[in-house]
Amino acid sequence: MCTVTYIPAKEGVFLVSNRDEKHFRSDALFPESYKFPSGEIVFPKDADAGGTWIAMHENGNAIVFLNGGLEAHTPEPPYRKSRGMILLDLIDADSPSEEFNMVNLNAIEPFTAVVWDHSRLYECIWDGEQKHFVEKDNNLPHIWSSVTLYEETTRSRRRQWFDEWLAKNPAPELNNILDFHQFSGDGDMYNSLLMNRDGYVFTVSITGMQLAKTRGEMVYLDVKNSRRSFFEVRFNQSTPVGQR
To answer: Three-state SS string across the chain, please?
Structure first.
């Protein structure tokens, strides 16, 4: 929930997320397809709270969360509902971006949602008091870093790494982008994309999605346990085509 990139491609788009978590959090469950009122949704499940930080719907929509809104905040639990469950509420709607603008977020911890909604890209921020809603240019690449972990100087440096990498990789495939999320940085493990802060907070997984017109792919790298999974979905059909 802490670093997200969006990259447009010839056929569809890529959305990739690094999940940075505290050492005591349980390992997430590998991506599976779950039946919801609106259809099948594929996501890795948070084993503690039951929600997720990234999901892909069989209708072609997708969503990724980052911790925090516009600036770092001090958590004030108890919250009414986990952010991971809010994500599932949004992706279960026909239009996640419209649902964001309608849903009650009082007593919900701040978050940033990157939303792919019927081939349009939105940044949806809840700062704990107000919603901030912006449509992003879906023809341009973007990178987000969580404000709860990274100060603006670090976020700016990460944007520079991203721009430099894109200049050398103008037409990347999903595996290339996963490599960027694993190996980019300047040797500072506190702030590299694959980060580790003295074993207390560190990158536990990387999830990549490729969203094309008729199909989607989700690759899940369990960095903590050196495992990998793959899930493929045919959009606009009632069931995913399979997993391997």
So the answer is: CCEEEEEECCCCEEEEEEEEEECCCCCCEEEEEEEECCEEEEEEECCCCCCCCEEEECCCCEEEEEECCCCCCCCCCCCCCCHHHHHHHHHCCCCHHHHHHHCCCCCCCCEEEEEEECCEEEEEEECCCCEEEEEECCCCCEEEECCCCCCHHHHHHHHHHHHHHHHHCCCCCHHHHHHHHHHCCCCCCCCCCCCEECCCEEEEEEEEEEECCCEEEEEEEECCCCEEEEEEEECCCCCCCEEC
